[in-house]
Specification:
Elements lengths: L2 H18 L3 H17 L6 H18 L14 H21 L2 H8 L3 H6 L5 H29 L11 H20 L6 H17 L14 H5 L2 H14 L4 H32 L2
Helix pairs in contact: 2-7, 3-4, 3-7, 4-7, 4-8, 4-9, 4-11, 7-8, 7-12, 8-11, 8-12, 11-12
Length: 279
């Protein structure tokens, strides 16, 4: 068989494969379906905590402790109405970090499903986006449950409040992708504990979730402004209280979108390095 014949056959095979192998979105969807199947078989173990958690949290923090706080809040709102949108955004942040940590590390170190997937037509970016899709789906579900509890407790004071849901999801995404970028580089779970204790927890406490950011020391204000969570908390609160303006919405959304874009770029680079260069 001549060289020209072999080349023509190879070209024809490559063309046929390009027609039968789906595009990137379809490949990411396949990765998402893997995680959907996994979650479908295990959801019963978390559904009760997902439903009861927001109700108990709002009851304890807002109705319980909130009765002791009668002044110092902007606009004279109740403490429950003040913290509820902040906790909505902060919970989305926590879910994003959790979904981007053990899910990724376990897939590359313990379960090995990433190594199986990368030996199929799925590329590292397909695996990354498919994993992110399931993480965002779970974050969205938790946010919907929490928002329903907020409505039940009467903490939504504006029709704009419904837009707090996509803002919370965007906040979670802004943390999900950087966490995925970091987790896939690890060899064990010890560094994750450092992130949970010294990054996630301080953000949860000092990004305006439980008290106005103006009460922080002056030197901490720039630090708070530089965190995506602060922007998510502020925008969710403005939307639920009806104090949002076009300018503030543009600033907060712009910051979150830039953080998301940077996180996606970092995650794509880390996944490619780990799954292509180290196998």
């Amino acid at each position: 068989m001549s060289t020209e014949t072999i080349s023509a056959a190879a070209s024809a095979a490559a063309t046929e494969r390009s027609r039968t192998v789906p595009g990137g979105l379809a490949l990411s969807w396949r990765q998402f379906l893997y995680w959907y199947t996994f979650f479908y078989r295990t959801w019963r173990g978390t559904v009760m905590s997902a439903i009861l958690g927001p109700v108990m949290y709002l009851t304890a923090m807002g109705v319980g402790i909130g009765t002791l706080i009668t002044h110092g809040l902007p606009g004279g709102v109740s403490y429950l109405s003040f913290i509820a949108p902040g906790v909505l955004a902060a919970t989305a942040m926590q879910n994003g970090i959790f979904e981007g940590s053990f899910t990724v590390l376990g897939s590359v170190k313990w379960a090995g499903n990433y190594w199986a997937a990368v030996n199929t037509p799925q590329r590292p970016q397909d695996i990354m986006f498919g994993t992110a899709m399931q993480g965002l789906a779970r974050t969205a579900g938790m946010s919907v449950v929490f928002f329903a509890a907020m409505v039940g407790f009467g903490t939504t004071h504006s029709l704009w409040a419904v837009f707090a849901l996509p803002v919370a999801l965007l906040t979670g995404a802004a943390f999900l992708f950087p966490m995925m970028a970091y987790s896939i580089t690890l060899e064990n779970d010890q560094p994750l504990m450092v992130v949970f204790r010294f990054v996630m927890t301080p953000l949860f406490l000092f990004s305006g979730t439980f008290f106005p950011w103006q009460q922080l020391p002056a030197w901490m204000h720039p630090i708070a402004f530089a965190t995506p969570l602060w922007h998510g908390v502020e925008l969710c609160r403005e939307l639920t209280l009806g104090t949002v303006t076009a300018a503030s919405a543009a600033i907060h959304l712009g910051y979150l979108l830039v953080a998301l874009a940077v996180g996606i770029a970092l995650a794509r680079r880390s996944f490619t390095r780990r799954l292509y260069l180290e196998r």
